[in-house]
Amino acid sequence: MTEDRHAGTPKHTPVGWPPRNRRELLVKTLWIGVWLVFLSSPVDDLVGGGHSTGATAAGSVGLAVFVGVYLTLVFRNIGRPFSPRVVLTLGGILGVLAPVLAYTFGSAWLGLFVYLSVAWGATLPLRAAYWAIPASGVVMYLIGLHSDEKEARGLLLLVLLIGFAMTGVGQLVRTTIELRKARATVAQLAANEERLRLARDLHDLLGHSLSLITLKSELAGRMLPDHPDKAAQQVADIEQVSRQALVDVREAVTGYRRPRLAAELAGTQVALTAAGVTAEVPAEPDLADVPEEAESALAWALREAVTNVVRHSGADRCVVRLLHRQTLDGPVLELSVEDNGSGGSGKGPGNGLTGLTERLEKAGGTLEAGRAGRGFRLVARVPTASAADVGSGP
Questions:
Q1: If you average pLDDT over residues 126-147, what whole number do you get?
Q2: Which pTM was predicted?
């Protein structure tokens, strides 16, 4: 199936899709209508005048109903399938009209069984179709014995072949419809995943930045009466943090933000000092063998851990360590953040720790968090390509 590069939509009518415009409606109508050639014999029989007026009128009505039900069932069922009950009802109507008309009006009407076979093959479940198609052939042949056995024998093979061929077409249509639904489900899941990513990013970004802004605002308020110069410096820091937070949020929304561990370490020192927490933070880390995704996950972990220390722990001392270790699963880079505070009041992991766990798992890492002595300790590990066991922390 070719595609229009400019419009981004298929040029031809996709299999299993309902018509979306007049052109596609015409294509599907022609594709289904070409099979109406087998109606020429019943129409000639009615026009030929070999029946009484009442029989001709009854035959015309019966033929019109048969064709209408056939087109409704086959045309509508390709793209927007009926419920199984409706399919069985319409198929049953065809299954009654075809033998009644053929038996009543003669061999010229045996061609109706071709339509019956097409309809059953295209719309019935495979197991039901495998029984219904041979049954329609047998009924047609028995009726042909009553009118024209030679004509019935000639149509028997066609009824069977075209019926079983249409089971393949029907299966193709059903598979296409299922694939279309699956693709819609995948698209919905991708959208949900993107919303979760954005929620995690905004939580981590704004939680850290707004906590720092709050601390510096309180500090500026205390300094303002006696030390206006120092208060002005705190206000300038607030402006800088808020501008950076705006940039970070924009980058997170567009999906381009990958926080760097070195920058987060520097920000950690500033945030802890502003909160009155004695900080021990490692120097410039060695990240030569750390994948970018793993570094980003550790940076998020550091940011969330420091935010929790500042907002919830009540600690006056915090130690950050960054170590390369060799484990049974291979080399890892380990980040630990430990404080001497009392911890938060929550009874379970918050949104931040849940989001961190998801981030680290995507990078192949792990997260451990819990009480450690009198304080709280968070340990995040990500795989690296290095087997060294060199510490870079204090």
A1: 87
A2: 0.44
CA atoms of 23 and 27, how far apart (whole Å): 6
C-alpha–C-alpha distance, residues 145 and 133, integer Å: 19
159 contact partners, CB below 8 Å, separation of at least 6: 113, 114, 117, 133, 136, 137, 140
Helix (H) / strand (E) containing 292: helix 292-308
Report the number of secondary-structure helices (H) and strands (E) in the chain.
Answer: 11, 5
- Asked which of 27-41, 46-60, 102-116, 271-285 is least confident by mean pLDDT, the reply is 27-41
Higher pLDDT, 129 or 186: 129
CA separation for the pair 335, 382 (Å, rounded): 9
Burial (CB < 10 A; 0-12, 13-18, 19+), residue 150, is: exposed
* Span 120-134, pLDDT tens digits: 888 888 888 888 889
Q: What is the DSSP string of 45-113?
A: HHHTT-S-HHHHHHHHHHHHHHHHHHHHHHHHHTTSPPPHHHHHHHHHHHHHHHHHHHHHH-GGGTTHH
- Report angle CA 141, 142, 148 to the nearest 5 degrees: 65
CA 127 to chain centre: 31
Contact 122, 78 (CB under 8 A): yes
Least confident window among 264-273, 314-323, 360-369, 373-382? 264-273
With beta carbons less than 8 A apart as the criterion, state whether 119 and 167 touch.
Answer: no
Express each pLDDT in 93-118 by its tens digit: 998 998 998 888 888 888 888 888 88
pLDDT digits (tens, 9 = 90+) for 243-302: 777 777 766 665 555 667 888 888 888 888 878 888 888 877 777 778 888 888 888 888
HSE of 226 in the Cβ direction (CA atoms, 13 Å)? 3
DSSP bridge pairs for 277: none
Overall residue count recorded for the chain in this entry:
394
- Report the C-alpha gap between 258 and 293 in whole angstroms: 8
CB 344 within 8 A of CB 255: no
> How many whole angstroms separate alpha carbon 194 and alpha carbon 187?
11
CB 303 within 8 A of CB 342: no
What would the mean pLDDT of 12-24 be, rounded to a whole number?
Answer: 58
Euclidean distance between CA atoms 68 and 312, whole angstroms? 73
